[in-house]
């Protein structure tokens, strides 16, 4: 049974696929209400209210995926999730229109004093002179952060006859020209805009991007909007400029602390507020819940996810192509790790042929996870493999080389450890399966599965027979056996497969023979 925790309110229509899945138990409760069962959940679905901290992740020992039904992931500790091998996905497109529309509504409301006028009329006043507004037409709107929401907002502003100034270090000229906005430097936007709105993520570069100093560079009488994240406009700085009337008014959907208890901003008549409603429409909520549900189901089913924050994004088509190499790489990493039982400093992976045309970074992570999984005591997967390798001082690299092996595709991993190197080559043969085709300088050909024994020996008569006899004496059936050598009478190798795990005493016995150089067991 798979257990999924939905800890923030979400569209039940969007959640239908998991609610209806017979093998999934869905619990719709806040984290605090399931403290005792946290270790059971395979997935957690959240909006912005649940804080997915390292502390929570530590308690959710079975967790595989965090699904954010929305855009902003600043409530999720991505580094910690990555460290614990938990994939984080979001639903980046589902609430774009709703948030852009909400920002536009806030802007119009702010300049026409609609919330204040509404309260006044409902208090039996009829004070038309108190609410004289300002037109949007002909004004300059400065947008900081020109992604999905910023872009949709700009289109609407252009239709209303506004000029749009944009500051976004990652914006291309092409995109700006298509929407008809002017790319500006930050200070240029501040100096030229009548209204400024922020649409960046909350990250260290954007935290307090509008603060006491930068707001002072804006036009006197500027209006400010924040429908992105509390903290992008520094609240102390905003309060300072509201007091000295440099800022004519502000519209805020988000706050540094939510809900904003005892927040001085709420005391200003010219500050209008909503309780983080940007994405709160039926349409957006259905979109984000449906998107995130599908992604979580895919991931739990071993299928690709398309909007992961801490994994390379793969389409279904690419994932299907990668899948055989992913499995092969994982096994190769595991074999190498078991054959090189010494500290390792470097892992170099080479890709040849058709595999080199795929998303090799994903395959590299699979190989690393196979390697590390065999030697560390924590969950290692493609999400955290790179991070764990670095933590343990193991450097890794990948290279695409011209096809020298003669196979349609070939992966080669070379591991450098204390005074030792180990090389393993593998290929995937369509309709046949994974094959290991090289160990160090030896050509070999075996299917990497089950319980294996790798023997290095001298190519002398009787060695194979002796190995067979020892195993036979212990009633051990050899399932398959492959032998490889470079020159007659020189170094040789054997790879044997068994149906069960071998007793370590057998390894010792075989290794004691003069012609046998080393014996290693490998369990896959
Ligand atoms: N109030 C609400 O309910 C909602 C709020 N949001 C917030 O809105 C934010 C934006 O959402 P989207 O437009 O979908 O994201 P997006 O990723 O499409 O756009 C963000 C833009 O910010 C830009 N950016 C990054 N660093 C910057 C910097 N230092 N200076 C200027 N620009 C920078 C990026 O280049 C990107 O173009 C989200 O991160 C989220 O926090 C999103 C949805 C609903
Ligand atoms: O998608 C986002 O980034 C949002 O801010 C929406 O937040 P919510 O899901 O409404 O709590």
TrEMBL record:
<keyword id="KW-0028">Amino-acid biosynthesis</keyword>
<dbReference type="InterPro" id="IPR006236">
    <property type="entry name" value="PGDH"/>
</dbReference>
<protein>
    <recommendedName>
        <fullName>D-3-phosphoglycerate dehydrogenase</fullName>
        <ecNumber>1.1.1.95</ecNumber>
    </recommendedName>
</protein>
<keyword id="KW-0560">Oxidoreductase</keyword>
<dbReference type="InterPro" id="IPR006140">
    <property type="entry name" value="D-isomer_DH_NAD-bd"/>
</dbReference>
<dbReference type="GO" id="GO:0006564">
    <property type="term" value="P:L-serine biosynthetic process"/>
</dbReference>
<dbReference type="GO" id="GO:0004617">
    <property type="term" value="F:phosphoglycerate dehydrogenase activity"/>
</dbReference>
<dbReference type="InterPro" id="IPR045626">
    <property type="entry name" value="PGDH_ASB_dom"/>
</dbReference>
<dbReference type="Pfam" id="PF19304">
    <property type="entry name" value="PGDH_inter"/>
</dbReference>
<dbReference type="Pfam" id="PF00389">
    <property type="entry name" value="2-Hacid_dh"/>
</dbReference>
<dbReference type="InterPro" id="IPR029009">
    <property type="entry name" value="ASB_dom_sf"/>
</dbReference>
<dbReference type="GO" id="GO:0051287">
    <property type="term" value="F:NAD binding"/>
</dbReference>
<dbReference type="InterPro" id="IPR029752">
    <property type="entry name" value="D-isomer_DH_CS1"/>
</dbReference>
<keyword id="KW-0520">NAD</keyword>
<dbReference type="InterPro" id="IPR006139">
    <property type="entry name" value="D-isomer_2_OHA_DH_cat_dom"/>
</dbReference>
<comment type="similarity">
    <text>Belongs to the D-isomer specific 2-hydroxyacid dehydrogenase family.</text>
</comment>
<comment type="function">
    <text>Catalyzes the reversible oxidation of 3-phospho-D-glycerate to 3-phosphonooxypyruvate, the first step of the phosphorylated L-serine biosynthesis pathway. Also catalyzes the reversible oxidation of 2-hydroxyglutarate to 2-oxoglutarate.</text>
</comment>
<dbReference type="Pfam" id="PF02826">
    <property type="entry name" value="2-Hacid_dh_C"/>
</dbReference>
<dbReference type="InterPro" id="IPR029753">
    <property type="entry name" value="D-isomer_DH_CS"/>
</dbReference>
<dbReference type="InterPro" id="IPR045865">
    <property type="entry name" value="ACT-like_dom_sf"/>
</dbReference>
<keyword id="KW-0718">Serine biosynthesis</keyword>
<dbReference type="InterPro" id="IPR050857">
    <property type="entry name" value="D-2-hydroxyacid_DH"/>
</dbReference>
<dbReference type="InterPro" id="IPR036291">
    <property type="entry name" value="NAD(P)-bd_dom_sf"/>
</dbReference>
<dbReference type="Pfam" id="PF01842">
    <property type="entry name" value="ACT"/>
</dbReference>
<comment type="pathway">
    <text>Amino-acid biosynthesis; L-serine biosynthesis; L-serine from 3-phospho-D-glycerate: step 1/3.</text>
</comment>
<dbReference type="InterPro" id="IPR002912">
    <property type="entry name" value="ACT_dom"/>
</dbReference>
